[in-house]
Amino acid sequence: MSKFVLKRAANGVWYGLFTHLAHRGVKHGVSTRLGGLSTPPYATLNLGLKSGDDPDKVCLNRDLFCQAVGVDYARAVTCQQVHADRIHLAGAEDAGRGARDHAAAVPASDALITDQGGLPLILFYADCVPVLIFDPVRRAIGLSHAGWKGTVAKIAAKTVLAMGEHYGTRPADCLVGIGPSIGPCCYEVDAPVVEALRASFGPAWRHLVVPRGDRWLLDLWHANRDQIEEIGVPRAHIDISGVCTAENTELFYSHRAERGTTGRMGAIISL
Ligand SMILES: [Zn+2]
After folding, report:
1. CA 245 – CA 234 distance, rounded (Å)
2. Conformation bin of residue 260: beta by default, left when phi > 0, alpha when psi is -120 to 50
3. SS3 assignment, position 213
4. 5, 51, 182, 228 — which has fewest CB within 10 A?
5. Percentage of residues in the chain with pLDDT exceeding 70?
6. Cα of 103 to ligand 1 centre, how many Å?
7. Helix and strand totals (H; E) in the chain
8. Is the Cα torsion angle 109, 113, 114, 118 positive or negative in sign?
9. 205 Cα to the center of ligand 1, angstroms
10. Domain assignments of the chain as residue spans, ordered by start
11. What span, in angstroms and rounded, lies between the C-alpha atoms of 34 and 1?
12. What's the confidence (pLDDT) of residue 231?
């Protein structure tokens, strides 16, 4: 059963949280499109500086989302996401990188890890999969961004392993939330994607797709769960929100369902 719930903050922002993370005191959230200042087609809580929306409104929206979650927007660190598998180890010197200015964000990375308190990690999504990772034993966090390319590159598993390398994180201790993103109900892909999936996942690829005509429906949620389970994160520690962005465009931005002209949600996590 999903432990993902939606909550309305005092400032009117609606965001989702994972109760298994919240119970351990880790500040985090996945934004919706409700409670911000942007106008259509970005209405209302658009957090994407590269989406075509007014950057001043986007920054105000980011600040509202950070207030809702209880973290300091001025210290949030983000990346210039490129659908690859590079992971950035965020330190105190990165505080505020990319929060207000895309050019200042960490270049060419799709995941962040840290063991620093008060250093919120934030990435942006519209159908791609947010994976939030918390190690309560070593006190470390990770956040990854995975469309199909990141998923077949196993960026979520690599993020957990990077936390192991740098902070001594054991996968068995990690608690993980897989946030709203395009679901296996809607994510149609073509043969080259399935070939990449087969090359990366081996025989298990068959469990991650369902044929539809000459294309396939791909299950990014289970592809991300399976890759972190394979390296030792217990299935009981992994929560899949099970919310499809493409079917819920009143609540979430969907690049696919809205044909590219839309905003971005944010996922944030902070010690
Ligand atoms: Zn769907």
Report:
1. 26
2. left
3. coil
4. 5
5. 99
6. 33
7. 6, 14
8. positive
9. 20
10. 4-182+233-270
11. 25
12. 98
- Dist. CA 52 → ligand 1 center (Å): 25
DSSP for 115-175 reads: --TT--EEEEESSSEEEEEEETTTTEEEEEEESHHHHHTTHHHHHHHHHHHHH---GGG-E
Q: How far is the CA of 182 from the centre of ligand 1 (A)?
A: 6
Residue written as token pair 């969907």: 254
Q: How far is the CA of 187 from the centre of ligand 1 (A)?
A: 7
Q: How far is the CA of 203 from the centre of ligand 1 (A)?
A: 25
What is the distance in A from the centroid of ligand 1 to the CA of 248? 8
- Count of CB atoms situated within 10 Å of the CB of 24: 11
pLDDT digits (tens, 9 = 90+) for 15-64: 999 999 999 999 999 999 999 999 999 999 999 999 999 999 999 999 99
End-to-end CA distance of the chain: 26
CATH of region 4-182+233-270: 3.60.140.10
Residues whose CB is less than 8 angstroms from the CB of residue 260 and which lie 6 or more positions away in sequence, other chains included: none
Amino acid of residue 40? P
Share of the chain above pLDDT 90, in %: 98
In whole angstroms, give the CA distance from residue 20 to residue 185: 26
